[in-house]
Design brief:
The chain has 212 residues and is mainly beta. The protein has four helices and 13 strands. The chain folds into two domains: 91 residues, Ribosomal Protein L25, Chain P (Beta Barrel), CATH 2.40.240.10; 86 residues, Ribosomal protein L25, C-terminal domain (RNA Polymerase Alpha Subunit, Chain A, domain 2, Beta Complex), CATH 2.170.120. It has a six-stranded mixed β-barrel. A four-stranded mixed beta sheet has the order 10-7-9-12. Strands 8-13-11 form a three-stranded antiparallel beta sheet, with no helix packed on it. A hairpin with a 2-residue loop joins strand 4 and strand 5.
Length: 212
C-alpha cells in the first residue's frame, strides 16, 4: 500500500493546528539508521487509509521528497469525539531487521464447527490480534485461525494453530500459549423436579378416624 508525505518545516502546537485547519495531518517517521523526520499528510487520504485493517498490519510504501521508504504505522492519535486524525507515527523498516508489530487474527469455519452445528454453542474470540516478531518479508497481513474442528465447551490455544513461516509470537507477562477462542455452551432452562413423598398423591390420603 502506498501513500504520499511531504516534509514539514514548522514545528510546535501552533504549526500543527494550522496544518489541521488546512486539511493536513502532522506526522513523524523514525527508526533505522536515519534521524526522525517531521512530515505532513493529506487528511482525507490518511483518514480513509487508516480505516482499513491491512493499513495497520502491512509494510507501507511512503513517497517522501521523490524517494520511497518502507514504513509501518506505529501509533495514531484521533480526536476524542470528531472524525479527525490528529497525528500519526511511522516506523522505518529495514529488510534485515526484525520488526515487532500486531497482526489481526482471522477466524475461519466457526459456523461449520461441531460446537455450533451440533451443540448450538457460541464461539467467543478471546483475542483479536497477536503481537509478533518477524523479518519484513515474512510479515503476514493476518493470521488464520481454523475453528472447523472446535467442539462444545472446548478451548483453542495458540499452540493449536500453526503460525506462518518466519513468524514468532511475542508473549506478554510470561503467557506463551494464550487462549484464542472458546466454545461456550448455552445454558438451557432448568427443569424443576417436584419431589413428593410416597402415597402423597391427591386422593390417596386416608382420613384419620376420630378418637372415641
Amino acid at each position: 500500500m502506498k501513500f504520499t508525505a511531504t516534509l514539514r518545516s514548522d514545528q510546535g502546537t501552533s504549526a500543527s493546528r494550522r496544518l489541521r485547519r488546512a486539511g493536513r495531518v502532522p506526522a513523524i517517521v523514525y527508526g533505522g539508521s536515519t534521524d526522525p523526520v517531521s512530515i505532513e499528510l493529506d487528511h482525507n487520504e490518511m483518514y480513509h487509509a487508516l480505516r482499513k485493517e491491512e493499513f495497520h498490519s502491512s509494510i507501507l510504501s511512503m513517497d517522501l521528497a521523490g524517494k520511497s521508504e518502507q514504513v509501518l504505522v506505529r501509533a495514531v492519535q484521533w480526536h476524542p469525539y470528531k472524525q479527525l486524525v490528529l497525528h500519526v507515527d511511522f516506523l522505518r523498516v529495514e529488510a534485515t531487521q526484525a520488526i515487532h508489530t500486531k497482526v489481526p487474527l482471522r477466524f475461519l469455519n466457526g459456523d461449520a464447527s461441531p460446537a455450533v452445528k451440533l451443540s448450538s454453542a457460541m464461539i467467543s474470540h478471546v483475542l483479536t490480534e497477536l503481537e509478533i516478531s518477524c523479518l519484513p518479508a515474512d510479515l503476514p497481513q493476518s493470521i488464520d485461525v481454523d475453528l472447523g474442528e472446535l467442539t462444545a465447551g472446548a478451548t483453542l490455544y495458540l499452540a493449536d494453530i500453526e503460525l506462518p513461516k518466519g513468524v514468532e509470537y511475542v508473549g506478554r507477562g510470561g503467557d506463551v500459549n494464550p487462549v484464542l477462542a472458546v466454545a461456550l455452551v448455552k445454558a438451557g432452562p432448568e427443569e424443576e423436579v417436584e419431589e413428593k413423598a410416597p402415597g402423597a398423591e391427591a386422593g390417596d390420603a386416608t382420613p384419620e378416624k376420630p378418637a372415641e
